[in-house]
Amino acid sequence: MPAATLARFVLLEARRSGLPWLALACIALGVGLAAFLSEVALTESRALQAAVVAAVLRASAVFLIAAHVASSTLREMNDKGLEIMLSLPLSRSSQYLGRLAGFTALGILTAAVFSAPLLLWAEPGVVALWGVSLAFECALVAAAALFFAMTLAQLVPAIAATAGLYLLARSIAAIQAIASGPLAEPSLAGEAARWSVGALALLLPRLDSVTRTEWLLYGPPAAGTYLTALAGLALYALLLVAAGLFDFHRKNL
To answer: How far is it, in rounded angstroms, from Cα 212 to Cα 233?
Structure first.
């Protein structure tokens, strides 16, 4: 199957690049930071270590996937490799979905590797739930990075757009709480701001409800809440894939 072959090539490229070494460096940074915190924390050192390491590993995994997807896609476009691929008897859908499948598999592998160190501080079952959630998160970031790289055709704007989408989706719940808090002014401008923030929240994935550090500290979430959050990420990823396919089919390279 052409899409599966292309996905395998994407994984081979990632293995031959510096991505594995960067992943190991991020894990070493997280574990080293945990060791440092164990020496300086007076109380709740284990919980503090788990919280900090989980935050570092989650952010590192997302950034590595976004940077690799954008740089790999744009390098292929700049080297005319994409034009050569388009000259072959392969549909554009197969080429786009093949690349996406490879990047998604890479995100799943990255999530598994980055979840393993947390076994030092949390139960295996909880770590598994956290890792699956991180895999969905990385898959969503891969789809977003591929879409922005294909659309913007420049490395820095593609990574910036992906990072902006991720950070805004992570913080939109806090922004909503601030906009509707007791300190908000009861004015027309304040009401317009609250409506604008609410409308923006409807357009973003609820990343604040997935891969939460509190799962590692206080136990797993309810099954319904967990599955609903993952389903929301999957649905948003499908929307990004549909948008990317539409843009890729109309693009003249």
So the answer is: 14
Q: Which residues have C-beta within 8 Å of that of residue 165, sequence separation ≥ 6?
A: 144, 204
Is residue 42 within 8 A of residue 103, CB to CB? The reply is no
Write the single-letter amino acid at 28: A
Successive 10-residue mean pLDDT values, the chain, 253 residues? 78 87 92 79 71 91 95 86 71 87 94 93 92 95 94 91 92 76 62 72 84 88 91 93 88 65
Token pair 């030092």 is at which residue?
120
Is 40 in contact with 28 (CB distance < 8 Å)?
no
pTM, two decimals, is 0.89
The per-residue pLDDT for 187 is 65
Q: In the prediction, which pLDDT does 200 show?
A: 73
Report the pLDDT value the prediction gives residue 193, as an integer from 0 to 100: 66
CB atoms within 10 A of CB 37: 17
Q: HEC profile for the chain?
A: CHHHHHHHHHHHHHHHCCHHHHHHHHHHHHHHHHHHHHHHCCCCHHHHHHHHHHHHHHHHHHHHHHHHHHHHHHHHHHCCHHHHHHCCCCCHHHHHHHHHHHHHHHHHHHHHHHHHHHHHCCCHHHHHHHHHHHHHHHHHHHHHHHHHHHHHCCHHHHHHHHHHHHHHHHHHHHHHHHHCCCCCCCCHHHHHHHHHHHHHHHCCCCHHHCCCHHHHHHCCCCHHHHHHHHHHHHHHHHHHHHHHHHHHHHCCC
